[in-house]
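Possible race condition, two jobs.
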Amino acid sequence: MLIGELSRRTGVHAHLLRYYESQGLLKPARGPSGYREYTHDAVLTVVQIRKLLEAGLSTQEIALTLPCATGTAPDLEPCPELLAVLRARLRDLDTRIDALLKSRQALRDHVAAAEGRAGRAGEGLGSEAVPGCR
């Protein structure tokens, strides 16, 4: 099948399919006319790529993951290299989530402090003007 048909079957734009090819995730053959020709397995591969992207994996990580993938979920064989990649990505996400939680709490504290000052300003406390603050 040509790239347009693969795009229609998967709902993925042709430019993304070409990007996946450039990342080594899809490997179409070239027909006599020079057009990309995909096998029917490419539909499953694209579905797997999309699901792995949704899980937060990079295309480089997906390249390591695809050989261990089966089915549309995809189901992953417990390859040692794959587990190491997935665990590293999970640690990275946990670290980023922790940082975001700390940022959220700091922002809540700032909001609460500003709201507290606003309440005191109404009582005649802290009513001095801050340049640039209205």
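Job #2 (started ~2 s after job #1):
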Amino acid sequence: MEEAGGGPEAQYERLALDTALSTLLAVLLYVAVKVSVDRLRHWRARVSVLIVGAGPVGLTAALVAVRSGKVLKLTLLDERYRAALLCRPQQIALQPRSVRFLLALGVDFDNMEGCWDNEHFFTRIGVFQEHLLSILEQQKYRQEIRILLGTKASTRLPAVRAAAAGTLRVALALPGD
């Protein structure tokens, strides 16, 4: 005699189907919660960054910050105007380790005025700064980046202090670096 719900095989099939559906629902719920929590952590981990000084070190710091993916807003200040930055005639020599580091950040030495000698790259500081500024300006469309050349940090000091009270991280690159 068979029961109203069918035989034992039909009951086992329904039980197996219910178990599979329950497991699938639990896994999907877990994945949705995990992804949401990870996005929230990533969003909360983002910080505002202020860099004072647009020399080679300051611009490299800005590029590292932007490429980290942790920057909500980046502000770069330098009291020199762009023309004063880019006409610097001093030479810079980048050793192989620095070149590898900068290549990983997206610096394209093949499209930069300069020369190679024994795995070292030689160029003018102004050319190097112009290249890094162009990379940062390309990132402006994806992230909030403000490049304020011709702006003394002391004129922005009240805003800097107010922001520092929050979640601002300050990186200093002294003029002439």
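The chain has two domains: 1-45, 47-172.
Logs attached separately.
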